[in-house]
Amino acid sequence: MEILTLGEKIKAKRKEKNMTLKELAGDRVTPGQISLVESGKANPSIELLEYIAQKLETDVDYFLESEEKQASKICEYYLNIAEASLSSENFLRAKEYVEKGLHYANEYNLLLYKGKFNMVLAMLTYYDKNYEEAQQYCLVANSIFLKLNLIEDAVKSFILLGKISIGMGYYSSAVNYFKQADSILSENYFEDELLKARINYYIAMSNLYLGKISQAIDLAYVSKKRLEILNDKKAYADVLILLSLSYAKDGKIKEAIEYSKKAKDILAELDSKKNIAEVEDGIGEILAKYENYDESFLHLSNALKIKQEINDSTLPETLFKMCDNYVKIGQLQKAKDIIKEIQDKLGYEDHVYRIKLYKYLYKIYNIENDKRRMEEVLIEAIKYLEHTDYKKQLADFCILLGRLYTDLNMQDLALKYMNYGLDIYKQLGVI
């Protein structure tokens, strides 16, 4: 996509219609005059422009549209694709379109889109756990949204700042950000049940981390009541994104914007459903800490059902929480069944979840005092991690295996794995 001058627009439309300069000029002007207009060396009168528009069967408003207006339309398209890609977890495409959009937003000083694109960058870096970088992008977006009095965007940026603070371990700061979001909604009489539900939920989670369990439970339930379950439309949205990209490549900006906006709107609904699952997950976690396991399982099951419906990538997190509950109440066979279910869902590249799976299996077999199974799990984990970049975790499992062999009085093997683990720690600079 590119910004066209008036002359370039006329020339492009003439070429599109397969017209010569002479044919476009007709009896009204000379081909040379049309050529001067197309090259930008002469400006047409409004009467001539209307004549050209009529000959090219084009609305004169198209030719009168400023470069800034064109840039805004292009930014709108890039933003829609970036946000839709973010929702569908296509992070590489989201980043690509943010960079494209920021080029035009900066060149034409489009403040609104500067804020919007910085917000997408904040979310991308947040998902990548680069919290300090995410905070910087989000603060830029937040200041722009407040300056432009964009209530909903400002609230969402405060929510993200709160989530970033949680990621950094600054729970009191997180609560303050969430309360600022809530205050803006109240001060502006802005009615959005989903936003209010999310704010209540995140304050609840912050209170949980601060050890304020009863407040966390109360706010989590308030959040849950506000949420409604929406239908899964991800596949349809993906088709719309494909259509939008196709139209964009064909130079049809109007159709590209239309389909990208539809995709974004549908995926916004999908995000609502993800938020519901997140709340249910959080309530389950809170209740487990309060040792109310029956209620915890109920909410975790609700989260699991929603995540299964939308094929959410964080589904194993919910299963691990259920497994943790079963371990705590001593139902180890059910915990192992959950682990088997997780194992069946994981791909080879799901390193983080697979490491977690090995840790849970080791923990369960340790409780059962099944030394043979403990050894099998640790050896399998070590063999798997040797082919990954997770060297710290590899060393951890080596040390665990070394200790196990020490308990089994197998000193040669104990020394082998202890030294293996210690060597990795030294390479990493841990010791």
TrEMBL record:
Gene3D superfamilies: Tetratricopeptide repeat domain
Keywords: Cytoplasm, Repeat, TPR repeat
Principal cellular location given in the protein's record: cytoplasm
UniProt-listed Pfam families: HTH_3 (PF01381)
CDD domains: HTH_XRE (cd00093)
GO cellular component: cytoplasm
One GO molecular-function entry: DNA binding
TM ranges: none
Domain of life: Bacteria
SUPFAM superfamilies (UniProt xref): lambda repressor-like DNA-binding domains, TPR-like
HTH cro/C1-type domain residues: 10-63
Localisation: Cytoplasm
Entry's family note: Belongs to the Rap family.
Name of the protein: Probable transcriptional regulator
Organism: Thermobrachium celere DSM 8682
Source species taxonomy: Bacteria, Bacillati, Bacillota, Clostridia, Eubacteriales
